[in-house]
Amino acid sequence: MTHPPLEFTWFYSALAFHTAKPDSPNLVLTIKDLFNSLLSFRSDNGYLNQVSLVAPVIYQLVTFKDQIVRFRSDVVSLADGLVSYIVMCCENENVNDVGGVEVGGGGGWVSVVPVWIADRVNERCGRVDGLELFFPFTSGEIRKGVVDGECGMECLAGVVMVEAFLFRLCLVFGEGRAEVEVCKDVKSCAVQIIKGFKKNPAFLVMLFKLLLEPSLPVTELLTTTDELLLRRLLFDVALDLGLCLSFDTSPRLSDVKYKEIVILWLFVSSSALQFASDSNDHARVNYYLNAFSSSQLPREIIVWVTGLTSITPTAPDISSPKDIIGWLLVLEKQGLKLCDHSISELHEKFFKYKSMGFDSGVKNAEAMVEDAPARMNRIRKRESAGFGEVEKQIKAIKCCHGNLGDDGFYGKNEVANSVPDQEMVDMVR
């Protein structure tokens, strides 16, 4: 076949891999051969299909994690090759790929997953969640969305991107280096990968959804301490991303997708604040609050809401995400639908981190909805002060960061390695 469906390619590759595996003393090399074999099936089916092809490679790398210590350089090289391949697929994206019907996007690939995990099923006497094994770095909610076919190939490619992203970041740990160096490398690596992966909006959607979970699904590779550190660093990156994410600089995003990403970012900001508060990291709480209020995204949410209602509700204070969330909860009860996400469902998920005073936030929001639009005038005055410009937002954050001093936000054990101005702006262009 000129353009074989994804499930055909996976089935053939699974048979070839399982046949070759027993004869290989270095399973990492066998996985590398699998990667190269999958690349040989590249076709004109679209970049999302090409990204999805390599899902079995990540599964096998995690499955044979015990070999990472023995063959670390080979694993890191393969992981870098995997990320570079995905970035190349995104850069070679054709305009017709976006929103189109991808070959293999009908979900038939699910029936091939048991072929890949057959040996693991035997080890566990058949009592396994096949998709959880095959996609170890995802959540149950994300896996359900992929199987239900809500996003088609875009969703499957997003899963592969998130897994490649997390796997590569996990490899930064475990080398016995100082925490300062680990933090610096994780942030730098995360920013670079996001720059390459951002063309598929499902990637950011899934990454933000994972940050709303009680923990990241990386226990196969990281200790609890390292997982907490990784989550803290990803919260840093997510809040920095809010400084430069905008619809104007993301032309490939539909209005619906952009709103979905921004609403998720709003809840991620709340989770980040709760995480820092639970850790008694008061300097980080202040940094997150300043990053949030300096972003243009809270103002965009207010503009969307006021444009959807016939009665202009009084806008909430934009200095904290909990006020905006409480405001949206009240308006949702009154019938407002801002995007495909249910604000109340996201709010319920957030409570896995414990309440952050949202009860009082909702009560304040109820009063604001009934109030006169006086506070909206204050919001507009703030907007006219120039906060909407990305470069000024970044300077505001860096000024705040500088005022905290060497022992402030980053603490004594972490280097101040915030993303350079131009790099932050370029992330979403």
Would you write up a description of this structure?
By secondary structure, the protein is mainly α. Helix content is 63%, strand content 0%. It has helices at residues 6-20, 27-39, 47-52, 55-63, 72-91, 113-116, 118-123, 130-134, 140-147, 153-170, 179-197, 201-211, 224-241, 255-278, 282-294, 297-308, 321-333, 343-350, 358-370, 374-387, 390-404, 421-426. It is globular.
Question: Which whole number gives the mean pLDDT?
Answer: 76
Structural class estimated from helices and strands = mainly alpha
N-to-C order of helices and strands: HHHHHHHHHHHHHHHHHHHHHH
Helicity range: 55-70%
Work out the number of β strands: 0
Which properties best describe this structure?
429 residues; mainly alpha; 0% strand; globular; disordered C terminus
Please render the helix and strand layout as text.
Blueprint: H1 6-20, H2 27-39, H3 47-52, H4 55-63, H5 72-91, H6 113-116, H7 118-123, H8 130-134, H9 140-147, H10 153-170, H11 179-197, H12 201-211, H13 224-241, H14 255-278, H15 282-294, H16 297-308, H17 321-333, H18 343-350, H19 358-370, H20 374-387, H21 390-404, H22 421-426
